[in-house]
Task: structure prediction
Amino acid sequence: MRKIVLTFGLIAGVVMSGMLVLTLPFQDQLGGGAGMAVGYASMVLASLMIYFGIRQYRDNECGGAIRFGQAFKVGLLISAIAVACYVVTWEVVYTNFLPDFGDKYMAQMLERAREAGATAEQLATQAAEQAEFWETYKNNALVRMGFTALEPLPVVLVFSLASAGLLRKKA
Result:
């Protein structure tokens, strides 16, 4: 199981991390919405490795039969490796290439609020809250890693559950 989990986890991690790095030069052109769409599309693509990893484990190591719990465990292990790769990549990218990411993101959020008709008082409150959050984000690597891991987590969990359900097979 270890070889299958490592292989498929690393492939998924390379896909997610690779897209993060490949889109880095286009960050300003993509903007927030398009950048998120590209990012989540790469996470969905990478999460296909969960399905293929569980299937290979079932067919090659379990004799073609696997319980839901066992399949879900394999999916979670593959997911953990992929998410770890993504977090490490973001840490390298953020600290070396995007130290002003928080400032740009905060400016985009405030601009959206302004366009939505927020009052000056609401904008000031939101700006203060955002500034406090980004100060913590910038100075605390554990907080930053936690928030980064939360990005792909829903995607990989859904794929792990769905794959385990689709691939379960009684002996």
